[in-house]
Design goal:
The chain has one domain. Helix content is about 85%, strand content about 0%. The longest helix is centred in the middle third of the chain and has 70 residues.
Length: about 150
């Protein structure tokens, strides 16, 4: 080891260490002068991030509600289709039974004739109900498949 040179890092680095710390110290001093401005900028940036997150979340909630609404419509119309179909089968069987009795045996009573008329009207109404439920079902499925809730 040469005379006058120390192995201690801080002893021989005196002026050089201050030169490196000088620009950093100057920079931090300047930042200190603008700390209120920096705090305001950070505050507004955080607020902007919160607003963006809030409305993005709100849009996702609206999309979810839209999808659920059409999914409920799909399920309800499917249930209506099935119950209407079951009622159609029941009415058709009763109507067929009355028509067979009319052809096979004695004439129908007045009550049976009224029942037959009511069953025909009921069958027509059930056919319209089934068609309406089928339209609602198809509409809901179409909207869900085409992701229309994303475009609202």
């Amino acid at each position: 080891m040469a005379k006058g040179k120390s192995t201690h890092a801080g002893a021989g680095a005196g002026p050089q260490a201050r030169v490196g710390a000088g620009p950093l110290r100057t920079f931090t001093k300047r930042l200190g002068e603008y700390k209120e401005l920096i705090a305001i900028l950070v505050f507004f940036a955080g607020g902007a991030a919160w607003v963006f997150g809030y409305f993005a979340t709100k849009r996702e909630v609206e999309e979810f509600k839209c999808r659920q609404s059409y999914d409920i419509q799909r399920v309800e119309s499917d249930v209506k289709k099935k119950s209407t179909h079951d009622a159609q089968v029941d009415v058709s069987q009763k109507l067929l039974e009355l028509e067979r009795r009319e052809k096979a045996g004695p004439p129908l009573t007045e009550q049976e004739k009224r029942d037959k008329s009511i069953l025909k009207v009921t069958a027509d109404a059930l056919a319209r109900d089934y068609e309406s439920a089928e339209k609602q079902y198809d509409e809901a499925v179409q909207i869900l498949k085409q992701h229309h809730c994303l475009q609202r």
